[in-house]
Amino acid sequence: MYSRFTLIFTVISIGLLVFLCNCTNSVRYTRNQTKTRSSYRNDNGSKPQKKLYKKISIGIASYYGSGFHGKKTANGERFDMYDYTAAHRTLPFNTRVKVKNLHNNKSIIVRINDRGPYIKGRIIDLSFNAAKKIGLIGRGVGKVKITVIP
Length: 150
Hints:
The chain is of the alpha/beta class. The protein has a domain at 56-149: Barwin-like endoglucanases, CATH 2.40.40. Helix content is 17%, strand content 27%. It is built from 2 helices and 6 strands. It has helices at residues 4-21, 128-134; strands at residues 56-64, 85-87, 96-101, 107-114, 122-127, 141-149. It has a 6-stranded mixed barrel with strand order 1-5-2-4-3-6. Strand 3 and strand 4 (107-114) form a beta hairpin. It is elongated and about 90 Å long.
């Protein structure tokens, strides 16, 4: 059916192809040689810095409450409208921020556990209890100053 020459040529071609595919210049690590996060370095030899977020921002805040109570938040936990939590578009989960109502100078510290708000012009959605503490419940929205707590 196939000549002996054709079979030998096919086997050698496949072997050569497998050998060439494995000869790349990428760095390989064995289980004991993996780099830890702290051992990575920039081109100048310094360690890379953490991504810095804007520490202070001013904008409109709103709140959400009973309609979302008990539903899952973006980080997987259940939303509790009586807890001091908030939703922010970009801050990492579990970041603590101080929210100050610029209308009456009341402030509260909340933890970011959700994503939002999805209404243009708003920068943070507070839980019902946090909004009540700084006096946003009557008006529904208010101008606030957000400061990231390190």
